[in-house]
Specification:
Two copies of one chain form a homodimer.
Chain A (H helix, E strand, L loop, with lengths): L16 H8 L2 H13 L2 E2 L9 H14 L2 E6 L2 E6 L1 H7 L3 H6 L5
Antiparallel strand pairs in A: 1-3, 2-3
Helix pairs in contact in A: 1-3
Chain A binds a DNA duplex (30 and 30 nucleotides) through helix 3.
Pfam families (chains A, B): HTH_20
Organism (chains A, B): Myceligenerans indicum
Protein name (chains A, B): Helix-turn-helix transcriptional regulator
Chain lengths: ~100, ~100
DNA sequence: CCTTCAGTTCGAAGATCATCTAACTGTTCG
DNA sequence: CGAACAGTTAGATGATCTTCGAACTGAAGG
């Protein structure tokens, strides 16, 4: 059975501004998002952050439940990507203003 | 003595993204900023929020120290204003994307 | 099959946070 | 002066957050 189970993340219209602000109010999570902006989809191990695996997993959950990232299973890896388009729809220009880069 | 003591708030270039995100990651503070965007400078008592005066004071401190608002003493009142221009300089488009309004 | 690997879940510890009441400071006005 | 007013500060409380190590799950590979 090929299950491409998408982990729970809110639909675009339900992305809440408080949740997004909270998700971005942490240096580690900000680093994660910045690396996703620069490098695109990555596996958990591909991030250059100095926290334990369990802490990193916690941060992914916060970002995912806020609607900032998406995660999909792929074999032994869990691929993480930024919901750039959805964020651009819900809060146009947010990524650009916060990270100083143009949304890809 | 006419003291127009400006309460401590960081210079524009030192406004930190984590502090700003954290400042905006609270419903009450978000309401405060929204009301400042709509109504301009206001005294503390002019805000329509359902928290005690001391809690409101706490939220102003968080917003001020993050660089989101400015406060100046005027007689018996403390006037609060949004640092729209500084925020626009530091994070262009942020207010617009978060609040869905054009920066005045 | 059994080991390794990628990542999560489960407590737990310590820090930070939002909120309140009570007491305080400083200003205005009668 | 003395009372009323605007807002802050202090201290406490309960909730939430970040972090970790240890144990777990599920997939890949020898």
């Amino acid at each position: 059975m090929v299950h491409s189970a998408v982990l729970p993340s809110p639909p675009t219209d339900d992305i809440d501004v408080v949740d997004v602000m909270h998700a971005l109010a942490d240096p580690t999570r900000l680093t994660i998002v910045r690396q996703l902006l620069e490098g695109g989809e990555q596996a958990c191990g591909g991030f250059d952050v100095r926290v334990s695996a369990s802490t990193l997993s916690h941060h992914f959950k916060v970002l995912r439940e806020a609607g900032v990232i998406d995660q999909r299973e792929q074999g032994r890896h869990r691929m993480t990507s930024l919901r750039s388009t959805d964020l651009e729809t819900r809060f146009p220009g947010l990524l650009t203003s916060v990270f100083g880069v143009v949304h890809a």
